[in-house]
């Protein structure tokens, strides 16, 4: 508060002492406007209220005030401080909304790579990122969609900030998922994010994209993380943490979709003639390959007897002409099984 402001308040309060009047509507509105201007100028509310109270002391007359006059003065002070604080808070709310809108716009541009790269890099400094370095993105999901106002993202943020402090990390939510952007050489940050997200969501799943350079690299890493979660859905991967680098073979397998469809049809279509349809036999093959082609482990995972699993494998051999236990032909069959899971076969026809 400037000296002029202090003198103006002192004159106003002195007039209140002399006349006993309350503040006019115009004076109250001017107090609100003063509060807004002070907030935009970066002053603290504590400092400004203190300035008004000092103005009250300046206006307080030397003689002892009667109770009525003292109450009139205190009432005017209450009106003034209330109006001033209201204007201050209104400006702060507007600033917060503006800041949040700009932050969400930046996050959208960063994750989708839609804005001018130079402008994105320039704005990134404001939000704690240095895009001249490589960055990696982790995406965590839980049983429910999340926003930044929910307890789970806030719990994760508190844990990360408490452990790592300011390491140029960006935490946000997007599409109901939690997102962490961190320098690519700080793998411990993303590992901790995955651990904290798992705890906060009660057993969620996190996918981590590969470190990529530059502003567009963040978008690429984010796409990889989303792709890993999509693969987890299609392949039934339930690991709490997925690394996109470990799943690169799957996009390669489906890059030529027509060829993969032909492989699935030619290799697995005979399974449809089985009494229970193709699904039980396909599940058996999936469990068999996931277990490292160990029959006893496959039986445990499927909750079947070893004899039942052996029968199913023999049935697959007879129907397809390919022996799952034969290393020479196993690769074709396993690739077809992976393709079926990726393409949604046999539920989807193609």
TrEMBL record:
Q: PucR C-terminal helix-turn-helix domain: which residues?
A: 281-337
Q: Which residues form the CdaR GGDEF-like domain?
A: 113-231
The record's similarity note reads: Belongs to the CdaR family.
Protein name in the entry: Helix-turn-helix domain-containing protein
To which species is this protein native? Streptomyces roseolus
Lineage runs: Bacteria, Bacillati, Actinomycetota, Actinomycetes, Kitasatosporales
């Amino acid at each position: 508060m400037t000296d002029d402001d202090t003198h103006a308040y002192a004159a106003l309060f002195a007039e209140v002492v002399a006349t006993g009047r309350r503040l006019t509507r115009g004076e109250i509105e001017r107090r609100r406007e003063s509060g807004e201007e002070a907030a935009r100028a970066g002053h603290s509310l504590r400092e400004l209220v203190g300035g008004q109270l000092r103005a009250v002391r300046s206006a307080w007359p030397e003689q002892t005030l009667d109770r009525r006059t003292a109450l009139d003065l205190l009432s005017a002070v209450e009106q003034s401080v209330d109006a001033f604080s209201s204007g201050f808070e209104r400006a702060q709310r507007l600033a917060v909304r503006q800041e949040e809108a700009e932050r969400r716009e930046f996050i959208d541009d960063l994750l989708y790579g839609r804005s001018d790269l130079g402008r994105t890099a320039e704005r990134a400094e404001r939000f704690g990122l240095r895009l001249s370095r490589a960055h990696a993105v982790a995406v965590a999901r839980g049983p429910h969609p999340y926003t930044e106002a929910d307890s789970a993202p806030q719990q994760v943020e508190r844990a990360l900030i408490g452990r790592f402090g300011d390491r140029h990390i960006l935490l946000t939510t997007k599409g109901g998922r939690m997102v962490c952007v961190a320098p690519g050489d700080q793998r411990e940050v993303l590992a901790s994010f995955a651990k904290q997200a798992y705890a906060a969501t009660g057993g969620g799943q996190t996918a981590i994209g590969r470190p990529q350079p530059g502003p567009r690299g963040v978008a690429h890493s984010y796409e990889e993380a989303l792709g890993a979660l999509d693969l987890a859905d299609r392949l039934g991967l339930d690991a709490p943490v997925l690394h996109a680098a470990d799943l690169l073979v799957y996009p390669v397998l489906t890059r030529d979709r027509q060829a993969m469809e032909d492989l699935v049809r030619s290799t697995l279509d005979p399974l449809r003639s089985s009494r229970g349809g193709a699904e039980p036999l396909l599940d058996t093959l999936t469990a068999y390959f996931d277990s490292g082609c160990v029959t006893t482990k496959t039986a445990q995972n499927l909750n079947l007897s070893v004899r039942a699993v052996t029968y199913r494998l023999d049935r697959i051999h007879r129907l397809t002409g390919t022996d799952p236990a034969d290393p020479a032909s196993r690769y074709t069959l396993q690739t077809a099984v992976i393709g079926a899971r990726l393409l949604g076969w046999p539920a989807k026809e193609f």
